[in-house]
Amino acid sequence: MKMMNVFILSIVVLGSVIANAKPVLVVRDSARSFLQNSNPIDSLAESFIATIDEPSDNSLTELKNLLSGSYTVYASRNKSFRIRKENTVFDLSNLETNKANMAHQMLEQLVPQGYVNQFKLVSVDIQRSFALSQGVQIEGYTFNFKRVFNNRIVRNNKNYLVVRTDKNGVMKNAEIALQDLAVSSERIAIGVDYNEKMATLDSLINVDYEFIDVFGENRQLKKVRLDKIEVGSVAHSYCEVEVGSERKLFPCLSYASKLVLPNKESIGGIIDVPYSRKSWSEYSQNGTVRIIPHRR
Amino acid sequence: MYLKKILFVCFFSALSSFATNPTWTTPSKVHVSAFAVNDYSYYSLNASLHRTILHKNFFIDSLFAELDEHYPGKSKYVPYDYEDSSATFLNYKSAFTYNTEFVFFSGHGDQQKIFLYDHPITISKGCVGDSCYMYDWGKVYGGDTRWVIFDACEVLNVNKDNMLHLPLSATSIDVAKVDTLRTAFHGVHAMLGYYSLSWESSIPSGDGVFGSENLYSFFATNFIEDNETIWDSFNMANADLYNIFDEYHWETYNEHKKGLKPAIAFLRGYDENGYYHDTSIERFNYTFNQPIQITGTLEMFVMYDEYGTPEFYP
């Protein structure tokens, strides 16, 4: 099977040892609908691979310069920086009812117009507190955006926007990381039907997702068998892929999932998968093609 | 003997509180009391750790390096630096940590408990009276101590037994545990740690390894160089470290606990002199220059960050 050439680090391969151990795959209606040609990208037969110019930081510098007129820029690192400004308040009234809309408004307020569609909200961390006289209350949020490039979410940890606020939406700071990306002339096939997409996901789960590493009581990692994988939503993405010694961004599908353990506890994570079992075969014939996994 | 020491600490704290006018400023010195236990063979359990001493050393070295660069001339000192067989209950309990701005422990933990080399100690309520066995006495934190870091599992978790992994709620909280933790506050501003399990690990990096001890390098940079708040410094450092390990592999959590939850126990409200405090948002250059006793409307809060479940919104 061609997929055997695609490795995902840290996910332990023990599937051949124990029979009937494969986790059950459940796909929610919204994800199923998305996969059944609900997006213009689905009408394409092929899609371009993107490249990363590792040494260059033009994109980061450009946005930093644009923001420096409105915000205090600090904590500048090699590939990221933070901004802050007192009295910047975001409207969080839609947080529970319409996260996408709230996130869009936040971006419109925070970044220059040309960058608003270059980020997409992927998760929200919540800070909660307890005091005897106050009970439980929310103290703040961390909004985790991923970069969008060429209409695809970039699935690595070097293209993101993180916005931290208190419970009222008052900005503490925002952190931005960008790489210089470009569309290459290389293309891979993406035009496959729903059944093939599911078969591809299924084959990956069969190989790589029987066990996951979890923290144990002794502060070390231990293996826990997965009981079920529930796919809640899907996105067209660029997966970070190592082709030989080079890193590229391959068109792929990303499945936001709940990984359910036998005791029904679940862990949120994103599973990155090629469109089809054959779509990367041209590259895997010439050596190892390896997805660099990112849980979130 | 211990009662005398505690009384001495209280007396010293009271004296120091009158030495300077109350204000928010940069600490005049940064002294650290640090303890780490890798070797848990004393407990006859196969529970030894591997990186706690590295965590401790990274904390001290990173903090002092940041101070050298951004606050040259600031007094730095480590009066207590105990590892393994010297990080005993007695040495921890009897250390005059009231004279140090930071107290740091790395090792095994449990709810309101840390495991020293030879015996656990409670954080922090002890019994009262002459008949108390000394192990029953906790340790209180105050004097010059602004911040305590418990690099250990669940020390700040105040949920009921068998409900440790549940979100904060009226039904999951154990009021007695909240009260135990509260009694550790005798002037200290805030305590950092985990509501969940903590962790230690390493991944290959170049010719060597990149270890979880780098958490404290990130923390020191956030807190000293970037002047983030104490809570944001610790919380962001945890998130950054986690993301780096994510580069190498998914690392998730024990089946009993969902999610890594960095946490802080802090004080909020007005003290008896009318000063308002929220010690979770103190910065290195803006921290109250006095011990903060729980008086007036001041109350202890426990706060954690729970990482959200990823979802693609239409």
Summarize the structure.
With 296 residues, chain A is of the alpha+beta class. Helices cover 17% and strands 44% of the residues of chain A.
Quote the distance from N terminus to C terminus of chain B. 66 Å
Largest sheet of chain A: 15 strands, mixed
In total, how many beta strands of chain B?
17
Q: Biggest interface pair, residues each?
A: A-B, 69 and 62 residues
pLDDT below 50 for ≥5 consecutive residues: which ranges of chain B?
A: 251-257
Q: Overview of this structure, please?
A:
The complex is a heterodimer of chains A (296) and B (314). Chain A is α+β, with helices and mostly antiparallel strands. Chain A has 2 domains: 2-52 and 185-291, no CATH class; 57-178, TATA-Binding Protein (2-Layer Sandwich), CATH 3.30.310. Chain A is 17% helix and 44% strand. Chain A contains 5 helices and 17 strands. In chain A, the strands form 2 sheets. Chain A has a 15-stranded mixed β-sheet that branches. Chain A has a two-stranded antiparallel sheet with strand order 12-13. By secondary structure, chain B is an alpha/beta fold. Chain B has one domain: Rossmann fold, CATH 3.40.50. Chain B is 25% helix and 24% strand. Chain B contains 6 helices and 17 strands. Chain B has helices spanning 2-17, 52-70, 89-94, 175-182, 214-225, 230-248, and strands spanning 24-25, 29-36, 75-83, 102-106, 109-110, 113-115, 120-122, 141-142, 147-151, 185-186, 190-194, 202-205, 208-211, 262-270, 276-278, 287-288, 299-306. In chain B, strands 2, 3, 4, 9, 11, 14, 15 and 17 form an 8-stranded mixed β-sheet that branches. In chain B, strands 5-6-7 form a 3-stranded antiparallel β-sheet, with no helix packed on it. In chain B, strand 12 and strand 13 form a beta hairpin. In chain B, helix 2 runs parallel beside helix 5 and helix 5 (214-225) packs antiparallel against helix 6 (230-248). The longest helix of chain B is centred in the N-terminal third of the chain and has 19 residues, at 52-70. Residues 251-257 of chain B have low confidence and may be disordered. At the A-B interface, helix 3, strand 6, strand 7, strand 12 and strand 13 of A face helix 5, helix 6 and strand 17 of B. Strand 6 (119-131) of chain A pairs antiparallel with strand 17 of chain B.
